[in-house]
Amino acid sequence: MNPKELKYTREHEWIRVEGDECTIGITDYAQEELGDVVFVELPDVGAAIFSDKPFGAVESVKAVSDLFAPVSGEVVAVNGDLDNAPETVNTETYGDGWMIRVKLSDPGEVDSLMDSAAYQKLVDELRS
Amino acid sequence: MRSEPLIYELSSPGRVGVDLPVLPEADRPLSDFLPEAEIREDLPLPEVSQVDVVRHYVRLSQKNFSIDTDMYPLGSCTMKYNPKVNELTARLPGLSVVHPMQADEQVQGCLELLHGLERLIGEVAGFPAVSLQPAAGAQGELTGMMAIRAHLLLKDETRTKVLIPESAHGTNPATASLCGYESVAIPNGAYGEIDFEALRAAMGEEVAAVMMTVPNTLGIFESRIREICDLAHSAGAFVYCDGANMNAMLGRVRPGDLGIDVMHLNLHKTFSTPHGGGGPGAGALCVTEELEPYLPAPRVVRNDDGSFSRSVDYPISIGQVQGHMGNFGNLVRAYTYIRSLGAEGLREIADVAVLNANYLRVNLQDVYDLPHDRICMHEVVFSGRRQKAKGVRTLDIAKRLIDFGFHPPTVYFPLIVEEALMIEPTETESRETLDRFIEAMRTIAEEAETDPELAHAAPTTTPVGRLDEATAARKPDLRYRPPE
Amino acid sequence: MSYVPNTERDRRIMLEAIGVGEIDDLFADIPAEVRDPKLDIPAAMSELEVVRHLSDLAAKNADLGRWTSFLGAGWYDHHVAAYVDQLLLRSEFYTAYTPYQAEVSQGTLQAIYEFQSFICDLTGLDVANASMYDGGSALAEAVALALNASGRGRVVMADTVDPVYRKITETYLEPLDGSVEVVRNWELDSGGQLIEKQGALAGAIDRETACVVFQRPNFFGWLEETTEVVAAATEAGAMVIVVADPAMLGVLKPPGEIGAEVAVGELRHLVGPPSFGGPGAGYFATAAKHMRRLPGRIVGRTKDDQDRTGYVLTLQTREQHIRRERASSNICTNEALVALGATLHLAGLGRNGLRQFGELCVRHAHGAVEGNWPVGFAVATERPIVREFPVKCPGPAAEVNRSLREKGVIGGFELGRVWPELSEHLLLAFTEKTGPAEVACLKAALEGAAV
Fold first, then answer.
1. Which residues in chain B have their CB less than 8 angstroms from residue A36's CB?
2. Where are the domains of chain A?
3. Among A81, A111, B18, C232, which is most exposed with the fewest C-beta within 10 angstroms?
């Protein structure tokens, strides 16, 4: 369910690390809890993000959730397709539903994130 | 029911729906009076005759459910019957065709009414000072929190936090933020009341206020409220009370007597002024003597000779929140209501509101989960979790109730109850109506066991079914645009 | 008068079902020491008695039906077509509540959608909400929007914006350590004339300015020069907020066409009599880019699962019940019924009627300007006025008004109540009710005004 090659946070974000850059989105559990995503508020390219601090928000019809940065760094790309098709977050959660691409300022931070087994355990606990 | 087009779609060139006097000097163009560059070229409003305007809106009205249709048990909204005599008095020319800037001597009746209403509300709620200026409960809340903030500033105290129960209405933390405060959420305890120990642990010198709702949003009276007030006061903090649930307390207890410092009341809830499809309301703000100097101005004062005037001589008032003397039209209605009822009538409201809610509680608690098995006040909160396990969510229950001819209760609030159903019947529902409601709710509970599809498909008796809210939020269509 | 159907008999039956002996038992959680207070409130009145009592209070007021009045200052006494109030009194409109359950609220929701559309058409802007408490709080929220959207701190406001609106805005900004910088964009000459100070407002705008606010027509009734202000704002990236009387938008160029990004104003006088200052309703319209920052409720059009068109509250994640402490506004209940009244009236006025409505006011005002004035009285501006203008009196304006009242005329707003140097100036407002005959009456009364 949760792709094994990704890392995860307690706030239900996933992160795909590629060298000194990474891609960030929200997990299947998060999109299911939110319901139909209607709007995603993301930072501008060039913005700085800080580990554990909010970098944006994702809205459904009845809820709004902050997006928490799993790592620190600089935003190098933002998924502009989400403006027109925010529902991609629901349907292509780990693929086209990505939100931002970040150049890591401290690649070591990734080590403290959960792997897919640990994250699955968290989700199982929440669902019980 | 036929779908009703938009008013624009009923337009035909040259039509008009009102009858206005003839223009003087019609032979002179408007540009004789206004610079050409300032004159509007075209106004794309529709052109409709009066008959067609009236029919259009009459047909629209027929698609609405209202208190005058059947029971409307929205929890915390107090959807009681709106007395028609209030509409008569609010329309008396002497009380309606009066301009707020007329000289005091010309509006003595208005000022006397305001002064009298302040006193009546103060007496009912147990406070020495009342402002009728706020236009709604939320605005009253904001005004009250501003008063607290201003007072602390004057005392040179820096306090940054406001303690708010998790079960609170969203306006509470929003208001705290608008006053520059950080909201700290305090959990509820086992019996449905606020967790006193958690509150005690969070109380301190950086706390400006605790915002309570009494009874709380579970419909439960906060039995330790006096201790809570003492706790706050000894830390130098204030106690704000969201008075939305005053209907449970009229004549039975005065919030001021409990130690509360500031409270707003929703006149469109407790005091019967009409809900109007979403407003206007009117929010009375009650404060202790300590906070009185901060109330918004202008205020009504009674002179030695018995006459009334308006004064702005309040040097430390927080300012002004509404343009004039508050939502006066609704204040007339509330005043009429209180004078109609008297003390006995007011107490009867609380008595029967609480009786009605408990009657619903005992007749539904075997089929719906009751988070707290205890006497409730004017409203009862159930959880739809039992039905959720069968695939029927609270939303489905709400929609299915519509097919039985009722307005749904408040759903998914308070947030601390899973699949919440908040039911407030009010005192103006008869036992027969309550029995019909109970019957409908019990039927729906049974349907959840035997035929969940009925609830999923509901409502089927309305002009439209469930609407696509996701698309409405993703691709907002918020105004008419003529076809290209 | 009691509206409680359940009799003693009903209550007995219910108490038995609940399993308690007395209603008192249901209040056991209330501390005994404070339970059952004695309320010092007058005894209940029957319907007849209460109507008599309220009528007695009403009789102590001078209602404008019996007086000729020139009071305006943001709140006007217009005739509103009779059908409006009668439709508002329909049970399904006025005893319904917020349309949370869309399927049973299509009447309210479609009417709000039409209201939003009308406001956009009137203002020339892209999106409007379902109403605010009044024009003043709408302005306060507009300023908040500008501050939040820009991250800047300065609020520049013309002195000629309604002083009550300014006061409300200052009250809202104070807890957030914000303030309004008031620009004195007019001056008084030795002859008592009010002169517009060209360039004053434009000159106050810089790159720290979140928004500039001006009013059309301004509080004194005239149309200010705005091209320079808008240019300066655009250059500096500051938001242009305009306060505009909706009743005059049938004749005047709308805010959207003169460079405004946000427009707010008061709707009351399009809905019913002045009602001693409330309830009113504020409108709030913005350019498309601010849609997700709009406070208050918004209705959107959508479809149901059978492809039928329907209306629903939307973009709710902006609001307090979802955002809670992150909400930028705490508004919940608005002024729905008053906004509905505006919708009803605007639907009947329409393209032709609203123009005529405005023209009546304009022509009546100019008729008064153009005629002779009694000695000592003079129109106090040369700027283009719309339906209101200041008049210089030969003595204290308060005295003039007192004298007028003795003759059955209610004069204008005493500008000295806001600006001490204008203690001899009155602000006179004109509506469809104050035509040549009423003006003649006013001038005759001024003639004999003892000052």
1. 469-470
2. 7-105
3. A111
- When CB atoms are compared, the residue of C351, C405, C436 closest to B103 is C405
Higher pLDDT, C293 or B39: B39
* Interface contact A39-B474, CB threshold 8 A: yes
Kindly identify which residue of chain A lies nearest to residue B468, measuring between CA atoms. Answer: A61
The closest alpha carbon to C221, from C347, C395, C364, belongs to: C364
State the DSSP string of B190-248: TTSSB-HHHHHHH-STTEEEEEEESS-TTS---TTHHHHHHHHHHTT-EEEEEGGGGGG
Interface check C323 vs A, CB under 8 A:
yes
Q: What tens digit of pLDDT does each residue of B334-354 get?
A: 999 999 999 999 999 999 999
Q: Which residues of A touch B413 (CB under 8 A)?
A: none
Residues of C with CB below 8 A from A34's CB? none
Contacts of C322 in chain A (CB under 8 A): 62-64
Check: CB of residue B145 under 8 Å from CB of residue C176: no
- Residue-wise pLDDT for A91-105, tens only, equals 999 999 999 999 999
pLDDT, tens digit (0-9, with 9 covering 90-100), for B93-114: 999 999 999 999 999 999 999 9
Q: Is B224 exposed, middle or buried (0-12, 13-18, 19+ CB in 10 A)?
A: middle
- How many CB pairs (< 8 A) connect A and C? 16
**CA quadruple B459, B465, B470, B473: dihedral, nearest 10:** -120
Nearest to residue B454, comparing CAs of B396, B412, B410, B405? B396
**Residue C60: band (very low, low, confident or very high) from pLDDT cuts 50, 70, 90:** very high
Architecture of domain A7-105: Beta Barrel (2.40)
The CB density around residue B383, as the number of other CB atoms within 10 Å, is 17
